[in-house]
Design a protein that fits this description.
The complex is a heterodimer of chains A (257) and B (168).
Chain A (H helix, E strand, L loop, with lengths): L10 H21 L9 H12 L1 H14 L1 H4 L3 H23 L2 H5 L3 H23 L7 H33 L7 H31 L6 H9 L1 H31 L1
Helix pairs in contact in A: 1-2, 1-3, 2-3, 2-5, 2-11, 3-5, 5-9, 7-8, 7-9, 8-9, 8-11, 9-10, 9-11
Chain B lengths: L1 H24 L10 E4 L2 E5 L12 H10 L5 E6 L2 E7 L2 E2 L1 E4 L5 E10 L3 E2 L2 E2 L1 E10 L2 E6 L13 E11 L4
Antiparallel strand pairs in B: 1-2, 2-12, 3-4, 4-5, 6-7, 7-11, 7-12, 8-9, 10-11
The chains are: A mainly alpha (257), B alpha+beta (168).
Chain lengths: 257, 168
């Protein structure tokens, strides 16, 4: 994977790429808006930021966050949520894409520990919510949500095993391609971001609506947000692990034209 | 050739399983569908006797029955939080935005007196309430597809105005 960043792309090409990306994000969100929990914004913006760099990623994120309101309405809580979350998201994955290739070729132990910590935290939290009565949600949704949380646990556990096997193989010089390791790192980060999106909404919406952070309404809002969090997390794990490499490959070709 | 055949059979089995699961999950409900539609801004009904083994019936299922029996008409969209009603009996939801970030409009709100079950809060009259024939109904915390239909409880769809201004 050749390293790319914003320094070796012309401003005109960068603006065109950001415009096309913004259109793709809005189109992707619109097309899948009626399918519960399924979205492509995460994997598209992630791959774009990873390839085109932080600046292009943040510009696309801001343009998307504002222009999408023409279709879904101008709601301050949603605009604030999107304008905080997506630029940070683009910054993070732009930074991951800008990491020197040698780093992925000899993955540092401290970075592996961070990735492991994220994976263990997410899988443990998922298992806790799925196995206990922590979630106080509608009986019509609880089975589906708990099943999805077990699925998140299973997928993240599998990712944990794959990542550590690859890491050990790389340390012993037996791993020729570093792409799979990159996919594992990116998927773990994207999963964490997706969960943070809903948790951030659980803070922003109550504050803007004036409910207060610890009121009964806010607590109920937190529980019901799992209706979105669980399927979105599964979608992120699957879509990023499957589509990240093909999409970055396509974006690199566009970048190098 | 053998690999292709195995792949095809595997895919066919997966599709058949999905259809089978979908068919098993659909269980028709043998109840009477009735509602009081006293105006074009209100639909109220009391849930009839639901069989003991049917804990899976939602308000959406009952509304679908009302639509099928031509008691009401209903239009809506699926969202990540379930079915979202956009129009009932021709009355459509509206949203208007002001330049200062505030907004106002009309929408179909769901109220019920089925407040709690165990630790789960289904409706909260303290947040927003609606009084119907002297009965206090609370604003539902769930949409129609995730709100259970429970025997004897009252459910009301109310077309009402709303306004929203962000807190400073």
């Amino acid at each position: 994977m050749k390293q790319l960043n914003e320094k070796n792309i012309s401003p005109a090409k960068e603006i065109a790429a950001v415009a096309v990306m913004c259109a793709l994000l809005i189109g992707g969100q619109l097309v899948l808006s009626s399918v519960s929990g399924v979205e492509v914004v995460t994997v598209l913006l992630l791959s774009f930021s990873f390839t085109f760099g932080r600046r292009a990623g943040v510009l696309a994120a801001i343009a998307f966050s504002i222009l999408r309101c023409f279709l879904w309405g101008f709601f301050p809580s949603v605009i604030l949520l999107y304008l905080i979350y997506y630029p940070l998201f683009a910054l993070a994955f732009g930074a991951l894409g800008g990491v020197k290739q040698e780093t992925y070729e000899k993955f540092p132990v401290y970075a592996a520990i961070i990735v492991d910590f994220v994976l263990i935290a997410v899988s443990a939290a998922s298992a806790f919510c799925a196995a206990t009565d922590f979630l106080k949600i509608s009986r019509l949704a609880v089975t589906m949500i708990k099943t999805l949380l077990w699925l998140v646990f299973a997928l993240i556990s599998a990712l944990f095993i794959i990542f550590n096997v690859l890491f050990v193989m790389q340390r012993r010089g037996r791993l020729k391609s570093k792409s799979t390791l990159v996919v594992a790192v990116v998927t773990a980060t994207a999963t964490l971001f997706t969960i943070c999106f809903t948790l951030l909404d659980d803070v922003i919406t109550p504050l803007i609506m004036g409910w207060g952070l610890f009121s009964e309404t806010t607590v109920t809002y937190f529980y019901t947000s799992f209706l979105a969090l669980a399927p979105q997390t599964v979608c992120t794990i699957v879509s990023v692990s499957v589509l990240f490499l093909p999409l970055t490959s396509i974006f690199k070709k566009a970048h190098n034209v | 050739m053998k690999t292709k055949l195995v792949t095809f059979l595997g895919a066919a089995a997966a599709v058949a399983t999905l259809f089978g699961m979908a068919a098993c999950s659909f269980r028709p409900l043998d109840i009477e569908y009735a509602a009081e539609v006293s105006s074009d801004t209100l639909v109220v009904f009391v849930a009839p006797e639901i069989p003991e083994d049917r804990k899976d019936v939602s308000v959406k299922d009952y509304l679908d029955g009302l639509v099928a029996n031509e008691v009401i008409t209903m239009v809506g969209d699926n969202s990540e939080y379930g079915y979202f009603i956009t129009s009932v009996n021709g009355k459509a939801a509206q949203t208007n935005n002001n330049a200062d970030g505030s907004s106002y409009g009309m929408s179909w709100s769901l109220y019920t007196d089925f407040f709690t079950e165990g630790d789960v809060v289904y409706a909260d009259p303290a947040y927003q309430s609606y009084e119907y024939n002297g009965k206090l109904l609370g604003y539902a915390n769930y949409g129609v597809s995730n709100l259970p239909l429970v025997t004897g409880y009252t459910y009301a769809l109310v077309y009402e105005d709303w306004s929203y201004a962000p807190q400073a």
